Amino acid sequence: MGMFVISKRYNGEYKFVFTSRKGKTIFTSISCKQKSDCEMMIAAIRDNIALFAFTKNGNLARKFFFRLSKGGLVLATSRKYSTELSLKKGINEIMLYVERAEILDFSEDETVFPPADEVFI
């Protein structure tokens, strides 16, 4: 199952990524000033993925990617894929798992794992 992961950028703004069931990033959102904006975009994507457009692109290096948009506003850009087939698989993964995707929030605390001296064996 896919997963949305909310985090902070170095400039203090928020973003989220959608990852595959294997943990690979499929797309990364635009920057948001408020975490609530990320949460609203995630809810909209989860609830109404059919209303969003996937615009497929390629570059001179023969890498393929897509942009996720709604009403002409680009909300996210995918990672680079080496083939059009893998790009299609990335989009299919979104369509299959986005409605059931969990949300992880790593934006509040930089220390996700405890220091080694606090781990009990």
Helix content: 10-25%
Number of domains: 1
Strand order of the largest sheet: 4-5-6-3-2-1-7
**What is the annotated CATH architecture?**
Roll
Shape: globular
The total strand number stands at 7
Q: What class do helices, strands and sheet pairing give?
A: alpha+beta
Structure commentary:
There is one protein chain. With 121 residues, the protein is of the alpha+beta class. It is built from two helices and seven strands. Strand 4 and strand 5 form a beta hairpin.
Keyphrases for this structure?
7-stranded mixed sheet, 7 strands, 22% helix, 2 helices, single chain, alpha+beta, PH-domain like, 121 residues
Give the topology:
Blueprint: E1 3-8, E2 14-19, E3 25-29, H1 35-47, E4 53-58, E5 64-70, E6 73-78, H2 84-97, E7 102-105
Parallel strand pairs: 1-7
Antiparallel strand pairs: 1-2, 2-3, 3-6, 4-5, 5-6
